[in-house]
Design brief:
The protein is of the alpha+beta class. It has one domain: Roll (Pnp Oxidase, Chain A), CATH 2.30.110.10. The protein is 24% helix and 30% strand. The chain contains five helices and nine strands; from the N terminus they run H-E-E-E-E-H-E-E-H-E-H-H-E-E. It has helices at residues 4-11, 51-59, 90-103, 126-130, 137-148, and strands spanning 16-21, 27-32, 35-39, 42-47, 62-69, 74-85, 111-124, 168-169, 193-194. The chain is globular, with a radius of gyration of 18 Å. The relative contact order is 0.18. Mean pLDDT is 82; it is low at 175-201.
């Protein structure tokens, strides 16, 4: 369900937006910077300062997570159910490294909000549909760069794969099952975490 293209878009998204609802039906939308794929059907979001999101999940597990590449103006909306996993839960030990890859321990991770994705919908800027002959990814990128006052780098910058969001761990960690260390994968913790780039061509 979380295809390589979705993972790539996740990598290039600065934030995701987590929508939750409380027991009275009041929605809450909160930006989250620290999030990562867990496997093909799950992603995890750090609870650093998200008391409302966590409180809402206790009342209603249904969520919507959205993220876009602000330059191409394309992204995805993920629908599903989520639960907040505290540090006392055995699964937290397996999920925390995915989040620490991005925080490097600078922020406290109070819980891991684990999202089970049940549906995926693409997000496209209206221009792609309204003006298909004039709208391309290149034109959208150029427009966004002009709007935000940024310029393209003239030379590629080094990439730290360990900080990328498109991260895959074995689904058995979600049920607490044990697994052998996977060989030849760039691991973060006892070879239970590897980037998707080591799993796909």
């Amino acid at each position: 369900m979380l295809t390589p293209h979705i993972l790539e878009t996740m990598d290039t998204s600065v934030l995701c937006w987590l929508a939750t609802v409380d027991a009275q039906g009041q929605p809450n939308v909160s930006p989250k910077e620290v999030f990562a794929a867990v496997d093909a059907q799950h992603l995890v979001i750090a609870h650093i300062a998200s008391p409302t999101s966590v409180r809402n999940l206790a009342d209603n597990p249904r969520v919507c997570v959205s993220f876009i590449n602000v330059f191409t103006q394309k992204g995805y909306k993920l629908l599903g159910e989520a639960t907040a996993i505290p540090p006392t839960d055995p699964r937290f030990v397996q999920l925390e490294p995915l989040l620490l890859n991005m925080t490097h321990g600078k922020f406290p991770i109070r819980a891991a909000m684990l999202v089970r994705v049940s549906a995926v919908e693409p997000i496209l800027a209206p221009s792609y549909g309204l003006f298909p002959e004039d709208t391309t990814e290149a034109s959208q990128v150029a427009s966004a760069m002009h709007t935000y006052g940024v310029e393209r780098l003239t030379s590629p910058q080094p990439t730290d794969d360990a900080s990328r969001r498109g991260t895959i761990i074995d689904a058995s960690v979600l049920t607490g099952a044990s697994r052998a260390a996977a060989p030849d994968k760039r691991a973060v913790d006892a070879n239970t975490v590897a980037t998707p780039h080591s799993l796909t061509p």
